[in-house]
Amino acid sequence: MAKKIGVLTGGGDSSAINAALRAIYIKASSLGYKIIGIEDGWKGLVEGNTRELTRGSVSGIISEGGTILGSSRTNPFNIEGAVEKVKENIKKLDLYAIITIGGDDTNGVITKLAGEIQGVGIPQTIDNDIAHSDFAIGYDTALQLVTDCIDNLHTTTFSHHRVMVIEVMGRDAGILALNAGIAGGADVILIPEVPYSYEDILQVIDERKKQGKNFSIVVAAEGAKPAGGQDQVIKSEETDSFGHVRLGGIGEVIAKEIEKRGKYETRSTNLGHLQRGGTATAYDRIIAVRLGIKAVEMIQEGKFGMMAVIEGGRVSSVSLKKAINEDKPIDMELYEISKLLH
Ligand code: F6P
Prior knowledge:
Low-confidence stretches: none
Order of helices and strands: EHEHEHEHEHEHEHEEEHEHEEHH
Number of helices: 11
Strand order of the largest sheet: 3-2-1-4-5-12-13
Mean pLDDT: 97
Structural class: alpha/beta
Distance between the termini: 63 Å
Radius of gyration: 21 Å
Helix content: 25-40%
Shape: elongated
Bound molecules: 6-O-phosphono-beta-D-fructofuranose
Largest sheet: 7 strands, mixed
């Protein structure tokens, strides 16, 4: 009887997940496994919603954004009796192992279940904040998307001689904002890792004005914090199943303050969920394929409790505990470079 591998996609989606699912199916079926798609992340294992993937069901999906399996932010550890349900369903479905594709939260669940469930993780998040992996699936596409948006906002900001504050996702990580800001030629980049001050922001805008540049682009990561210990700007106090509040609104706050303090006509644009949509870049698809194949190889080799990663440019594996519990530091050298570019 063929062994079965379950695969789930949880947390915030992105654009190259389907490329990973297709690669997982092709590699695993070539080794004689059956692949069971679990619907809507961990919710599917709590409720027992699954469907067997076939060559047909993963055909033509490499260029489709989102995830054919659906996603949710369900945390079985936060729902009474759900962890037991997950274990029961894994038994009932006779799953030999599972592959979890997602960020810290989704992969954190399988990390906690190590020793009881044979699992392998794959990093997937536009935040690209998973330790020991240079890339998470979805990041490269989001980076290009945000860069394109900055380009588009540049022209109207220039024409109207305004300041534009562009709010970028990333939760507590500034990797997306920093890199897209540099690629898009932003004049000021605010990231959660470095508290900001209005004096510093206005100094750059004033300096540009003196040089005859009467427009400026500020890229603000949604999780950036002002110096002086103030909190992040949140959209809703309500927390999700993993305890996260919804960030959002920093762009508007900063825009108002720039207008008030600097007397510059200022607008803000929150790129929101646009950042997670669309067709994946070629590079993102290749990353997804490589991580998908690696995850199946890890199962074949019995390397459970591990995550497939790209570290130092090479596909490898790292313990889930390390990947999930350690922080991924921001590249401060790159941040310092970004401060010169205005
Ligand atoms: O973690 C990915 C992410 O896009 C974050 O950057 C953002 O803060 C969050 O998800 C938004 O979550 P939701 O889609 O649940 O609003």
